[in-house]
Every structure is written in C-alpha cells, then in structure tokens.
Write a structure and sequence with these properties.
It holds the Pfam family DoxX. It is found in: Membrane. With 146 residues, the protein is an all-alpha fold. It has one domain. It is 73% helix and 0% strand. The chain contains seven helices and no strands. The protein has helices at residues 2-21, 36-48, 50-66, 71-93, 96-115, 117-120, 135-144.
Length: 146
C-alpha cells in the first residue's frame, strides 16, 4: 500500500506541476472547451487574474507532493480547485478527454486525502475554543511531524 500511495503522490505532484507551469512555458497542448459556459468561465478567470493564482497553487502543491513536504496542506489547498476543475470537466465539457483529465486529478487526490484523513479530523471539532498557541504547543506540534 505504501508503494501505491507514493506513486499516487508523485503522479499527482508531477501532474499538477506540469499543468501549472504550462501556463508560463507552454509545452502541453491546451484544448479550448467546447462548452460556451466553460469557455466563459475560463475567460473570466484569465481576465480577473485568478487563473494565475490557480496556476501558482498548482505549482506549489505539485512541488509539495513531489518532495513529500506539507502533503495534507497541499491536498487541502488543491481541494477547491479540484472541485471546480471536476465540475468543468464532468458537467460542463463532458468530452472523453475532459473525463480522463478530470479523473486523473480527482481519483489520486481523493485517495490521498482518504489516507491523510487523520490530519484533517481535528478540524471537525463542533465547538472549538480559540486560543493563542503557546511555545510549548508549537514545539510539540513540530516534534510530532514524522
């Protein structure tokens, strides 16, 4: 199982890194969406500058996954982007290429998030009390990282 998770993490990291840097250094073919709604969304993201932010997050998350650093953070940062990309691919475009592309993003991300679930569970506290962290608490959290 460990090998499968390592291969999945590396695959997703390379997938995100290549898709992210493709904006600035085009080397992968980019197919314009056939759906007018998807095309309008894409134009809006580019015109607003948000598409650049998406690509920066993809590159950063890809590097974190490749180097096995802050993996739960990388997956959490990618989650909103993955939801939007999946919606565009599975609902708006619905072509064989978009289905494959969406699955290549959603499946590894879902698998990794499932296996890193223990890092997300503390966020599901129903009534959390805010408190500034103490130096000791920070030191314990840092020491607890593998």
């Amino acid at each position: 199982m460990r090998i499968l998770l390592t291969v999945t993490r590396l695959f997703l990291g390379v997938f995100l890194l290549f898709n992210g840097i493709n904006m600035w250094f085009p080397f992968l073919p980019v197919q314009m969406p056939g759906s007018q709604t998807a095309l309008d969304l894409m134009h809006g993201l580019v015109a607003s500058g948000l598409f650049s932010c998406v690509k920066v997050v993809e590159v950063a998350a890809g590097l974190m996954l490749i180097f096995n650093r802050f993996v739960p953070l990388a997956l959490a940062a990618m989650l909103p982007l993955t939801v939007v990309i999946a919606w565009v691919d599975f609902v708006l475009i619905v072509s064989p290429n978009s289905i494959v592309f969406g699955a290549l993003l959603v499946v590894p991300q879902a698998l990794l998030m499932l296996f890193y679930l223990r890092y997300y569970l503390p966020m599901f506290v129903m009534r959390a009390e805010p408190a500034a962290p103490t130096g000791e608490a920070v030191a314990q959290a840092v020491a607890a990282t593998p």
